[in-house]
Design brief:
With about 220 residues, this protein is an alpha+beta fold. The protein contains seven helices and ten strands.
């Protein structure tokens, strides 16, 4: 049986699912992770809600339906979860040599983005520099994920791009970036750092239990 890990590993090697077919329905890679990934002309749904239930809610031949609100709303209700955001997924290959910026690795950080990363990723590592933060860890189906944060005073100077680029020097595997499409500055940052848009993803997460949980930045 094909798994989400198999599909993501193929994408990392340049083999995305064939357009115009699908959807491909696979088991959740873990109880934590459920969602929908839309590649070009092909959707991958990883949610343990039953294949018949999924197919009954997707019109035949409608390649856009799995990432549209009606299906996602049904999936939220079925699973008792909520869609976090619909992100662009960008992929960056590893780079040789030293990072283009001096970084200091930390093992205990209280930054909200670090706390969020540790809830959703394993093997999290954190680096800082003046005005910036870089986080990498293993997320959905074990893929390596990257996030960066730049303090307001440091924005507009290329620091975000340098951090996103630095991550490619620190991990010897392809890196996935989850980017809200409306965050144009972040999209430009990762594109400039050599990441390539490859898909879109709706990740379903447990409904927040506190106001703080509902407002932690991505």
């Amino acid at each position: 049986m094909i798994t989400l890990h198999d599909i993501l590993a193929g994408a990392e090697s340049g083999r995305t699912p064939e357009p115009g077919t699908g959807p491909t329905i696979v088991p959740q890679p873990s109880p934590r992770d459920a969602g929908v990934i839309a590649f070009t002309g092909h959707n991958v749904i990883y949610a343990d809600v039953g294949e018949d239930w999924i197919r009954s809610r997707i019109p035949e031949g409608d390649l856009s339906a799995p990432l549209n609100p009606p299906f996602l709303r049904d999936l939220e209700e079925r699973m008792g979860r909520r869609v976090d955001t619909i992100d662009m997924l960008a992929l960056g290959g590893p780079c040789a040599g030293d990072p283009p910026i001096d970084l200091a690795e930390v093992t205990d950080a209280a930054h909200p983005r670090v706390r969020r990363a540790r809830r959703r990723r394993a093997g999290v590592r954190v680096w800082t520099c003046p005005g910036g933060l870089l986080v990498v860890g293993r997320g959905v189906a074990g893929r390596w994920e990257v996030a960066v944060e730049v303090e307001p005073a440091g924005r507009g100077r290329g620091l975000g791009r340098a951090l996103a680029r630095a991550a490619r020097h620190l991990v010897e595997r392809p890196l996935w970036a989850q980017i809200a499409p409306g965050n144009a500055a972040s999209v430009r940052t990762f594109l400039a750092a050599g990441y390539v848009p490859i898909a879109a993803e709706a990740l379903l997460v447990p409904a927040p239990t506190t106001v703080r949980d509902a407002h932690v930045p991505r």
